[in-house]
Specification:
alpha/beta, Glutaredoxin, globular, disordered N terminus
């Protein structure tokens, strides 16, 4: 009898919807209208399982600040994905990690436009810190690329 219940439970699990990361990950990326690296970053994300809508925004700073990202962590674009904000050229695997772990934060950010990160040319000068952004706490390091 126990085997039948276990088999039934297994069959029930197999009929559940797959996790959100199984299909394309929908994201909206707001960018400075004059910045081309944001398009490169969106293309990189698309190659890594994201469906990205890119919107030019003349008020990018305001969008970023309203999302809860402090000024010192601003980048050239701000992306919204599954309830989180992602600022800057964060690697796709780090964004996927964020969406899998679902920490109680506003989002993650790489400030500025460092060389060698996804969507930016050049060589990386060294490790790049990705900061966790919280409403009530100072930014902390979430990951390092």
């Amino acid at each position: 009898m126990k085997k039948a219940i276990s088999l039934g439970a297994l069959l029930a699990l197999l009929t559940l919807p797959l996790p959100a990361l199984a299909g394309p990950i929908h994201a909206t990326l707001y960018k400075n209208p004059h910045c081309s690296c944001c398009e490169e970053y969106a293309a990189y994300l698309r190659q890594n399982g994201f469906e990205v809508e890119v919107k030019a925004a003349n008020d990018l700073e305001e969008i970023t600040l309203k999302a809860g990202v402090p000024e010192q962590l601003e980048g050239c674009h701000t992306m919204f994905v599954d309830g989180y904000v992602v600022v800057g050229h964060v690697a796709a695997d780090v964004v996927k990690k964020l969406l899998t772990e679902r920490p109680p934060i506003v989002g993650i950010a790489i400030p500025g436009m460092p060389s060698g990160v996804p969507g930016m040319g050049g060589q990386k000068a060294g490790p790049v810190s990705i900061y966790a952004v919280s409403k009530d706490k100072a930014p902390t390091v979430y990951a390092v690329e």
